[in-house]
């Protein structure tokens, strides 16, 4: 294990530290701008797609299964209720988001999936020549990163509800 870690590039440790930092920040209730609600899902989509492309190349089948994972994240969210509770403050135009450990868990799952896939590919493990390995890994990447997208969409619903409530209040 020490041999594996000693051959890991420094940037991987930096990325890990950044993800842990942002994951811990997500565990606390916080007030964020609209931009920040979008930034994390976009970053996780890019990180997971980079894992697909770096691990399996620009292949139609790998991208299709990544997209299948994105679609499955909708179902995954319905089963495991990953959407964060949020309120939208119309006056400050910010979201008030309940803290959750789920983003940290999802970030670590993407990170360690990418790390494990890279290790298996680098060591030319026999598993990597099995097409099922590629399909499952790509779908898994999509499912995990899609979960961030689903959470962000749930948070954005708070803004729609606040705007609707304000219109109703003004009409009354």
Keywords:
single chain, 172 residues, mainly alpha, 3-stranded antiparallel β-sheet, 6% strand, DUF6622, DUF1453 domain-containing protein, transmembrane, transmembrane helix
Task: List how many beta strands DSSP finds.
Answer: 3
Number of helices: 6
For the largest beta sheet, what order do the strands appear in spatially?
1-3-2
Our count of domains comes out at 1
Low-confidence stretches: none
| N→C terminal distance | 66 Å
- What does the average pLDDT come to? 89
**Overall body shape:** elongated
The share of residues in helices is: over 70%
Rg (CA only): 19 Å
Beta content = 5-15%
- Characterize the largest beta sheet: strand count, sense, and whether it forms a barrel: 3 strands, antiparallel
Output the structural class: mainly alpha
Order of helices and strands: HHEHHEEHH
Structure in words:
By secondary structure, this protein is mostly helical. It has one domain (2-171). Helix content is 74%, strand content 6%. It contains six helices and three strands. The protein has helices at 2-6, 10-26, 34-56, 60-80, 102-122, 131-171; strands at residues 30-32, 86-89, 94-97. It has a three-stranded antiparallel sheet with strand order 1-3-2. Helix 3 runs parallel beside helix 5, helix 4 (60-80) crosses helix 6 and helix 5 runs antiparallel to helix 6 (131-171). The longest helix has 41 residues, at 131-171. The protein is elongated. It starts with a helix and ends with a helix. The mean pLDDT is 89.
Secondary-structure map:
Layout: H1 2-6, H2 10-26, E1 30-32, H3 34-56, H4 60-80, E2 86-89, E3 94-97, H5 102-122, H6 131-171
């Amino acid at each position: 294990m020490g041999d594996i870690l000693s051959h890991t590039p420094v940037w991987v440790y930096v990325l890990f530290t950044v993800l842990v930092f942002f994951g811990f920040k997500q565990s606390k209730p916080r007030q964020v701008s609209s931009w920040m609600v979008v930034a994390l899902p976009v970053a996780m989509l890019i990180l997971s797609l980079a894992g697909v492309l770096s691990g399996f190349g620009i292949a139609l089948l790998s991208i299709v299964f990544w997209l299948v994972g994105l679609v499955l994240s909708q179902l995954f969210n319905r089963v495991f209720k990953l959407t964060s509770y949020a309120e939208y403050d119309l006056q400050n135009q910010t979201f008030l988001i309940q803290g959750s450990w789920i983003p940290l868990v999802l970030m670590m799952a993407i990170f360690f999936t990418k790390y494990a896939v890279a290790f298996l590919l680098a060591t030319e493990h026999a598993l990597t020549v099995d097409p099922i390995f590629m399909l499952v890994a790509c779908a898994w990447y999509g499912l995990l990163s899609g979960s961030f997208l689903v959470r962000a969409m749930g948070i954005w619903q708070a803004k729609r509800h606040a705007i609707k409530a304000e219109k109703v209040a003004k009409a009354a």
